[in-house]
Amino acid sequence: MERKTISFPKDFLWGASTSAYQVEGAWNEDGKGLSVIDVGKTPEGVTDFKVASDHYHRYKEDVALFAEMGLKAYRFSISWTRIFPEGAGRLNEKGIEFYDKLINELKAHNIEPIVTIYHFDLPYELQKKGGWANRETIEAYENYARTLFKYFGDRVKYWLTINEQNMVVMYGAVLGMIEAKSDNPKKELYQQNHHMFLAQAKAIKLCHEMCPGAKIGPAPNIAYVYPASSKPEDVLAAQNFSSIRNWLYLDLPVFGRYNSVAWSYMERENCVPDIEEGDMNIIKEAKPDFIAFNYYSTATVAWDDGTSSSNSTGDQQIVIGEPGFYKGVANPHLEKTQFGWEIDPLGFRITLRELHDRYNLPLLVTENGLGAYDKLEEGDVVNDDYRIEYLRKHIEQAKIAISEGVNLIGYCPWSAIDLVSTHQGISKRYGFIYVNRDEFDLKDLRRIKKKSFYWYKNVIAINGEEL
Ligand code: BGP
């Protein structure tokens, strides 16, 4: 049999990612309204998001650097409250103007914009009225999406509906969301979840109507779940966790149904959402064009006999557990980052293969990367070999996955440039470009190319032929 050559497709979207509130700064400028992030509490010892990387004022310089790195795509999010300061109603022209300029700048440098419509920063005015628990937020999101398609749809070909809806539901508090206050907070969360599925479906339908030729998809955080052992109970726990963490968030947009394990979990936990007549049809009719997903690590779980503590203290990649359902355990075969996240490049390939097999849609990686305490050395040098190592191993596995038939259309590591982490400040850096500031000292915010910048530039230039 002829051996297949292993290579990336010619038009592969080599990119990098950011999100608005983590990179832009200018939190109260040019008419921007408050988001839940702006009013949320920042964990002790770390910076808030007010200035971040000051990308709002330095986007031209940043885009020039992205172009120098050779990026074919840049995945960023639009700040809802720059466009609609109150989430709905009054449009802020200045907000439109900023993203117009950013998109034009990217296009002028031949960088494909990949736009996340909503990345954690829900308008505070909507939150005050119940946020995603209120069905009116679905309409507000739909109208916001319509506005984006109207103003930017002529230039943006790739749209992402909601960043990490699954992490918002499971670890919302850690990510800066405002916690549900009802008598049954879990039911409220799954109600919010249902409304987000509806909002997403409406945006997908609208996008197809308004922007022929554009593509749109969901963007959950996906982590393949390993059982701690071959003990059937552990395998059951892995299935449990995977169903509510991963597949729930793709089964809805792709198949238009709640999977049965997730459904029985919601029954057990007394948190089945109220579903109105017609809701499931709306969800079923909207078909995503691709699946975008963020991957940092796999998860490993064991059976839980009912004694484990609840999940809320974990984060995107640290699993605690839910009594009687699953319990997070360390994987003894994996190393960890300085921030305790397991590193699993092979798990990346496993995740890619699983997604391909389950959903049979093109895949786009919208986040993957290593958070570390980088050190700026004499002469403006950052030797982030550990990051190069992490990315190299993941790209290697992506390449093999492609040769195994996975339809991977792009890879956008987190993050294009240093930015403020969701809950661990600016010291947890991910970027190819260093931003000269500390938690509480803004210094000069100057941009410095890290070693990984030059490495990634070469990878892109040779289309991943050598890594
Ligand atoms: C994802 C989020 C990003 C990003 C990344 C790294 O969950 O989509 O916004 O921040 O994780 O996470 P952290 O900043 O917590 O290290």
UniProtKB/TrEMBL annotation:
The keyword RNA-binding is annotated on this UniProt entry: no
GO BP of this protein: carbohydrate catabolic process
Enzyme class, UniProt record, top EC level: hydrolase
InterPro entries, A to Z: GH, GH_1_N_CS, Glyco_hydro_1, Glyco_hydro_1_AS
Entry keyword annotation includes Transferase: no
Catalytic-site annotation from UniProt: 367
Gene Ontology molecular function, alphabetical: 6-phospho-beta-glucosidase activity
Gene Ontology terms: cellular component: cytosol
Gene3D superfamilies, alphabetized: Glycosidases
Coiled-coil segments: none
PROSITE patterns reported in the protein's UniProt record: GLYCOSYL_HYDROL_F1_1 (PS00572), GLYCOSYL_HYDROL_F1_2 (PS00653)
SUPFAM superfamilies, per database record: (Trans)glycosidases
Pfam families (alphabetical): Glyco_hydro_1
Record-listed E.C. numbers: 3.2.1.86
Keywords associated with the record: Glycosidase, Hydrolase
Family membership: Belongs to the glycosyl hydrolase 1 family.
Protein name as catalogued: Aryl-phospho-beta-D-glucosidase BglC
Organism, as annotated: Fervidicola ferrireducens
